[in-house]
């Protein structure tokens, strides 16, 4: 492992601050600084950007982001045990690194960030998915962030980039591809982490589009696709019954066959349906 900064190796940091990994916080740490620098490079040109990092842990990815030239990194970490280790990074990069101790699902760090903003995270998978959906579904677009570079369980990463007709295609694919360009940029085996998780992981990079690919209201689209894929084996006229009493007419107006299953419906058609659902609700 080659040094990317003057700080001690992460194994020493973990031993010094007694950061034994906690399962309850989804702690699988990346200790190879070459790897964390490689992930940071996937986030794009960081030099003129503030980077919001969620879940820095002992700071492996944080150090990668700073070494790769981020203007400033702001991290949100739930585990207070990590704060002394993160303070050492703040001391090594004066004025460039700050930490908020708290739950990323409850904290709004926007007031502490200056655009352009990129987001990078290696998070527990459930928290990562929840945040991804929140970042993709604000009412207005473009969002506060320019790009997201996020670690996921490989299977979740495949759901984000999936195409119609595949088993992985669902709500995550639709919301991600509606407002962003999404691609898998790196695959990691369990052994890349300490302790190793049971499954493989992948880094997904999403660039926010200047405007959504097709017009639709975010909340309505989210509700329609959630219902459609909740019962993905059913025909849409059945799975979407709860969305509107006129669902058969609305499917027809959107050009979607009544007997179609969610898996076969394109992003464009789902957006058309969301527009008809929203218009019917206004009548
Ligand atoms: N980024 C570090 C790395 O790559 O080695 C740590 C990754 S570890 C998979 C996930 C980190 O997210 C842990 O440090 C954990 O304490 C933190 N975390 C878990 N839930 C969180 C939440 N809701 N808000 C903020 N941080 C959280």
Oligomeric state: single chain
Q: What's the CATH topology name of the largest domain?
A: Rossmann fold
CATH architecture descriptor of the largest domain: 3-Layer(aba) Sandwich
Number of strands: 9
**What are the bound molecules?**
S-adenosylmethionine
- Gap between N and C termini, in Å? 64 Å
Helix/strand order: HEHEHEHEEHEHHEEEHHHH
CATH hierarchy class name of the largest domain: Alpha Beta
Name the structural class: alpha/beta
**How does the overall form come out from the CA principal axes?**
elongated
Mean pLDDT comes to: 97
Major β-sheet strand ordering: 4-3-2-5-6-9-7
What amount of the residues lies in strands?
Answer: 15-25%
Low-confidence stretches: none
**Count of discrete structural domains:** 2
DSSP helical segment count: 11
Major sheet: 7 strands, mixed
The CATH homologous superfamily of the largest domain corresponds to Vaccinia Virus protein VP39
Our Rg estimate from Cα atoms comes to: 21 Å
* Share in helix: 25-40%
How would you describe this structure to a colleague?
This protein is an alpha/beta fold. The protein is built from eleven helices and nine strands. It has helices at about 10-15, 35-40, 60-65, 85-90, 125-135, 155-160, 170-180, 220-230, 235-240, 245-255, 265-280; strands at about 30, 50-55, 70-75, 95-100, 115-120, 145-155, 180-190, 195, 200-210. The chain has a seven-stranded mixed beta sheet, with helices on both faces. The chain has a two-stranded antiparallel ribbon with strand order 1-8. Helix 4 (about 85-90) links the parallel strand 3 and strand 4. About 40% of the residues are buried. The structure holds S-adenosylmethionine. S-adenosylmethionine binds next to strand 1, helix 3 and strand 3.
